[in-house]
Amino acid sequence: MFTIQIHSVDTEHPLFLSLPSNSNPSPNLNPKFVERRGIVHLFRTLIRHPSTSDSSASAAKSTLLYIVAVPNYFSSDDLLRFFGSHIADVSEFIIIRNDGVEDRYSVLIRTWIQVSADAFYRNFNGKRFSPPEVEICHILFVLSVEFTELGEIASTSPSGYVELPTCPICLERLDQDTSGIQSTLCDHSFDCSCISKWTYLSCQVCRLCQQPDDRPNCSVCDTSENLWVCIICGFVGCGRYKEGHTFRHWKDTQHCYSLNLETQRVWDYEGDNYVHRLNHSKDDGKSVVGDPHCMSNDGECGTCGHGEDSEMTGALYGSKVEAITDEYNHLLATQLENHRQYYESLLVEAKSKKVNSVAEVVEKAVTTRMQDLHCKLEKYEEDKKTVMDMNCILMKGQEEYKKKMKEIEEREMKSLRSRDEQILDLEEQIRDLTIYMEAQRKISSIADSDGIRGGTLLPMPQMQSSPANTKRRTKPGRHRS
Q1: Structure confidence by residue, pLDDT tens digits, 10-55
Q2: Is the pTM above the cut of 0.70?
Q3: Where is this region: Disordered (predicted)?
Q4: Which of 227, 206, 201 lies closest to 216, judged by CA?
Q5: What pLDDT is attached to residue 358?
Q6: What pLDDT is recorded for position 382?
Q7: Facing residues of 109 across strands?
Q8: Which of 27, 152, 269, 444 pairs with 171 at a CA distance of 20 to 30 A?
Q9: How far apart are the first and last CA of the chain?
């Protein structure tokens, strides 16, 4: 379990932050958002049984969380947006800035209930603050926090605790069982990009690792051989096979973790062991399991008194091999999950491109078909207009022909009536002529023409005559003689 002691150099200053739109804190709750300045000292309980440290660490939880380092370019408002809706579960939000550290600041977060703290840890521990960058959010469960104005009290380790570095790079140099954070694939060697992302001037250990050509000497005896640097305070001293000034520094300050500048291994004076489960060979760059008690850098034991055939060494090797297997299984599962997500995104992208291409082809075909239909429609409209114009002309001609036919019929009717009248008139004339001729013949046939002289002429009964006879009889010169 972790605990924190802070050498505070000022009082709290309230922060006026704009909460994210997706966070809905209860109106009855009044969370505290403040900022303080000071130097953070991180402590962890001594690990007596590394094989059971994972289970004990998982059981040691609290509602107080500590974010080891937030890059300085990430403002407090950016941090609230990074946490999103989970900020509604926060009861205290304390930003701690160190004037001697320019590139980062730390954050203490207290939640209302343990379930919220667990959810906060699951969602943000190990997550990058910004996808294009390499800085990772490291979160630790903290048992207690103590603010003091005395630097000696803040730097003094509580009973049963050892101090850890607050530099995120130095924390990642340690074993996961020691630092409480997951180990990364990077070994943070010279000219490493992740170290250069943090301003290494704020950490002397990172500065020494970034500048291998500018190696210091022992702070006490001024030797340049077998140098170690304390990853807690940056003290540079010689190893126990020289004058042992690093060992004396641990006795004086209880800073038990020192980095060998030559091999980049971290030694734990409290446990008298290297803190790495996995060490890197400097000859071929391959990962090898080293004997934690052997002081030979080339891996060949026999001069330091620690044999490989001892039962203790065998048990230690077995635990380390098991730890290495678990770590690589975890890394393999993580990489497989990343590959699965990557290829699923490719499939989704390919499917989206296929859908878009099909939609484009269909849209193009529909557009072409619509244009063809529109052209045909315009042609049919023109044909329809032509037929309608022709129909109008034909209708007008039909009307004219009907008028002409009516006039012809009327003329023919008049001609027929005139002809009938003429026929009737001629028939009357013929009849009158016939009667006249018969009368003349009869008169000429009578021998005694004087016998009729002085006779009496009797009128004949009138016959119904047609208008034509009446007309004929009215004509002058038609009287009988």
Answers
A1: 888 887 776 666 566 555 567 888 888 888 888 888 764 444 444 3
A2: no
A3: 447-481
A4: 227
A5: 93
A6: 93
A7: 65, 93
A8: 152
A9: 170
pLDDT digits (tens, 9 = 90+) for 96-147: 888 777 778 889 998 888 898 888 888 888 888 887 777 788 888 888 888 8
Report long-range pairs for 262-266 (Cβ below 8 Å, ≥24 apart). Answer: 262/226, 262/227, 262/297, 263/297, 264/173, 264/187, 264/188, 264/189, 264/209, 265/290, 266/173, 266/174, 266/231
Structure token digits, residue 84 = 């999103």
- pLDDT tens-digit profile of 357-377? 999 999 999 999 999 999 999
Judged on CB neighbours under 10 Å (0-12, 13-18, 19+), 53 is middle
Beta strand 257-260 with 266-268: parallel, antiparallel or unpaired?
antiparallel
Beta-strand pair 227-230/161-164 = unpaired
Domain ranges, ordered by start, for the chain: 1-162, 323-385
Q: How far, in Å, CA of 316 to CA of 321, rounded? A: 9
Which pair of structure tokens corresponds to residue 31? 């969370």
Q: What is the DSSP string of 135-149?
A: -B--EEEEEEEEEES
Q: Are 173 and 231 in contact (CB under 8 A)?
A: yes
3-class SS of residue 382: helix
> Three-class SS of residue 267?
strand
pLDDT at 52: 42
**Residue 4, token pair as written in the block:** 């924190």
What would the two tokens of residue 117 be? Answer: 């703290």
Cα separation, 141 vs 200, in Å, equals 26
Question: Is the pLDDT assigned to residue 184 strictly greater than 50?
Answer: no
Rg (CA), the chain: 62
Q: Which architecture characterizes domain 1-162 according to CATH?
A: 2-Layer Sandwich (3.30)
Unique residue bearing structure tokens 């734990």: 268
Torsional class of 460: left (φ above 0), alpha (ψ -120 to 50), beta (otherwise): beta
Q: 218 and 149 in contact (C-beta within 8 Å)? A: no
- The token pair at 341 is 């997500």
